[in-house]
Hints:
mainly alpha
Amino acid sequence: MEENLTGRLAELDQAVRRAAETIAKLRSERDALAARLEALEPERAELRALRQERKDLLGQIDGILKEIDKLDL
Length: 73
C-alpha cells in the first residue's frame, strides 16, 4: 500500500512540475506577444489615422460631387 502511495505521489509531483514548466513557458510567450503588440502600436495608430483621413477625404469628395450635380452644366 505504501509503495502504491509513494508511486502516486511521484506521479503527482511530476505532473505538478510539468504544469509549472508549462505555466512558465506560457507566461514567457505571453510576455513576448505583449512586447510585439506594443512595438506595433505606432503602426496601428498610423493605420487608424490614415483610415480616418481616407474617410474624411471620401466625405469631401462626395460633397463636391453633390455640389457639381446641382450645377446646370
